[in-house]
Amino acid sequence: MKFKAQQIADILEGDIVGNPDEEVSKLSKIEEGEKGSLTFLSNPKYNSYIYTTNASIAIVNKSFIPEKDITTTLIKVDDAYKSFSKLLEFYNEVKNNKSGREQPHFISESSSIGDHEYIGAFAYIGENVKIGNNVKIYPNTYIGDNTVIGNNSTIFAGVKIYSDTIIGNNCKIHSGAIIAADGFGFAPDENGEYNAIPQIGNVIIEDNVDIGAATTIDRATLGSTIIRKGVKLDNQIQIAHNVEIGKNTVIASQTGIAGSTKIGESCMIGGQVGVAGHIKIGNNVKVLAQAGVTKSLKDNAFVNGTPAFKFNDYNKSYVHFKNLPKIVANINQLEEELKTQTKK
User: N or C: which end of the chain has fewer CB within 10 A?
Assistant: First the structure.
């Protein structure tokens, strides 16, 4: 796909300095720009690259004033970073603007699909499924019986959505994610053998949720596992049965959340965090990477460590962690001196 500078300027409501007919077909970093590529400049520490880049078009702030000649066509906007992000979204929409139904695929006669759909090859859509308008379902996707998918949602290749799942509007579920597999529920019998407890609940994913590749969200034992509006989940996250995640919370890769835990709104949870089951995490909580959360946290908590404790306390303690061998040696020496003094 090729775009002219004038087309890009119209999308971004920017002003052109240079050739409005300059064409680009790819994106690049400013320091790696080459002919036919589009880049951007927002951080002043990269200003020097604008004079050496081979990119054909660069998006810059209106406040930028060149100190010497520039061969690259400029598009001046109020905020270059935001405008470039907007352009990336537009590019993705154009790139992923698929429609129609590829063959082969299977759609149950009892299911309904809205307008302007895309159904990829080898997709399977079970009984009584309801799919809204402008939904894209990429190849090799499985959608189980009685599932509901709202308008403008995208289900990427290889996603598996088990029965009775409810997915809202404007959601994205990336490749390899598994939604509503059985929760990890087993009970030991008198012989010490573990027997599966039937998991008969479902998963509810509200509007504007993004779910990363290979992330798994288990169905509830009873009731629902719930992902609230605006939640963003990274790749390879495990959400156990009956968990609830509050709106606009973001969670980084490889985090695991055990069953029946409730996480509040607008939380930020780093990568490889472990969260114990049956606890409650408040609103606006920040948990740094690799922390282990074993007890409930109040609103606005900021924690680190395993088990996690207050961030400032952790930093103070960490200074001593590194010096523990020296501290122990000093204590041993003091004890010996004290014994000697006592004998005297």
Answer: C
Going from N- to C-terminal start, the domains of the chain cover 3-95, 101-313
* 202 vs 145: CA distance, rounded Å: 12
On the question of pLDDT at 208 being above 90, the answer is yes
Residue 330 CB contacts under 8 Å (≥ 6 apart), including other chains: none
Catalytic residue among 105, 116, 174, 241: 241
- For the stretch 20-40, pLDDT in tens is 999 999 999 999 999 999 999
Starting at the edge strand found earlier in the chain, the sheet holding 216-218 runs: 106-107, 124-125, 142-143, 160-161, 178-181, 216-218, 238-239, 256-257, 274-275, 292-293
What class is the 101-313 domain? Answer: mainly beta
- For residue 91, what is the enclosing H or E element? helix 80-95
- Residue 241 annotated as catalytic: yes
The dotted CATH code for 3-95 is 3.40.1390.10
DSSP 8-state secondary structure symbol assigned to residue 31: G
The strand pair at 37-41 and 57-61 is best described as parallel
Total residue count of the chain as it appears in this document: 344
Tell me which range, 93-107, 161-175, 330-344, is most confidently predicted by mean pLDDT: 161-175
